[in-house]
Every structure is written in C-alpha cells, then in structure tokens.
Design goal:
Length: 210
Amino acid sequence: MINFIGRSREYNDHLEGEVPKDLERLVHRLRWPIYLESTPNIHLACYFGEKNYANPRAQFPYDMPHPGLDIQANQGTPILLPTTGRIVKCKVDKIGGLTVGVYDEENNLAYVFAHLDARQPPCELIEDTHTKWNSPYFLEAGKPIGKIGKWNYELPDFVNIPGEVLAIYGREFHHVHFEIMYINPRQKKPRFIEGVDTLNPLLLLQKLKY
Ligand SMILES: [Zn+2]
C-alpha cells in the first residue's frame, strides 16, 4: 500500500503532456525516486507546470511554471535513481541544499534531484558546478542518490496546505525536487540546464494505482 496524503490524490489529474519520440518506449516505465511502499506520508506537493509556490524568495505566488515534481516526505528519506546513469553535477546552495544531476546516456535522459542533504555523498565527488559529461561516477538503477535534506523555510501563509498534511508536517517542507529532462542525442553539445527541456516526470514514472 502506498501511503499518499494531501495533494497526492490529485495524481490522476496531472498525467498530461508530451514526450519526445525517443522516449515513447519509456512512458510509465521508470521506477520512482522514492520507496513507494515503505515511505510514510508521501505528499506530491507541487506538480509539473504548476506555480512554484514554495520558492522562499517569492513575495507572492511565484509565476514560473514548476519544472519538476516536489515529493514531500520526512528529512532523511532515501532518494533513488530511476535508471542507471552517471553523476555529472553536484552543487550546494543555501536554498536548495545539495542538487545532484545525473546523466543516463543510454536513454537520453538526465535527472535533477534538489534539496538533498549536503552532508551525504555524493556531494564530494564533483566539486564545481560545471557538468562533467564524462564523469566516472556511475550509479545503478534503484540505488540511493542521497537523502532528503532540511528545507530551511516554512511555507508562507499564502500556501494552502491540506489539513491532513498540516497535521503531519506543519509548515515544514522537506522534499525532493525531481526533474527529468530529455538530452537530444543529435545535439552536438548536450545541454543540462535545470528547468529547461524538462518533461512531466509523471509521464515516465510507473503509473500508480492506489
Ligand atoms: Zn520543486
């Protein structure tokens, strides 16, 4: 049984979007970046394309469409790699904690995992913020990429938190921001820019019935 709470129940309303032809064979095939069965109180708090309400810099609901999926769970929850890939980018910042980029060359995919715990590996692996496309740091599908870190901000008052979520997490918002992007193999220089060329992750992640 998946223990979904709050906005997670809107999952079926957020399955729209398109994927490039190269990726059609992966539709609803990827494993989730979180243990669905054993993680308590999983909250799909902000879906792809929605207003990114959690941005602490915003004084008002932020109007840039959200380029990923925010999965709220307890601090320390393991986050997993959906397919085998290499760690190509790590950076640490005050808002985001640790951000890790992973490139899956075989499937023309890249992932971004943000707001992870910066005290955990792999943040020491790659020091600067440039993308190391040939990094030797391979990680197999299903292996932990890190753990959910500490989100240092309370959600502002304008964020309408479902009562059930408020009862469990209050206004804390420890979560992983998960992006999937398509890396066009016909482009000479692959691009890896967060929030650009991103896909709705729910289109590739295994379809949930709950
Ligand atoms: Zn996010």
